[in-house]
Amino acid sequence: MSAPGRYQKGVIAAGEDTLQAACREFHEETGFIAQPPFIPLGRFRQNSSKKLSVWACEGDFDPSRLASTLFSLEWPPRSGRFQDYPEADRAAWFSRDEAFSKIVKGQTPALERLYALPSGK
Fold this sequence. Notes:
Layout: H1 18-30, E1 39-47, E2 50-56, E3 70-74, E4 82-86, H2 96-102, H3 108-116
Antiparallel strand pairs: 1-2, 3-4
């Protein structure tokens, strides 16, 4: 649980639709701005408490230029002490097989849908 007034990671803001939230999250986590056209890949359950709405788009992303914002997390748990952590700490490009071996299990269906697109490689 977050302290009052603290940013909640991954939460869709009031009045924000899922694509707007995805674009905001992408910017917060990478420092890059996603540009249309956006291809909807679907809605997926990552785990028992988290659902993902996922889109694909093309762009020029240099992983060495990752510029992630920070979020606050109470650590250690129930200590009352909050520490800041980056939304993402590193980025890289992977081959298809490497991507499937590294991705969180609950995100696999989104990656499968991406590779099923006519332009998927």
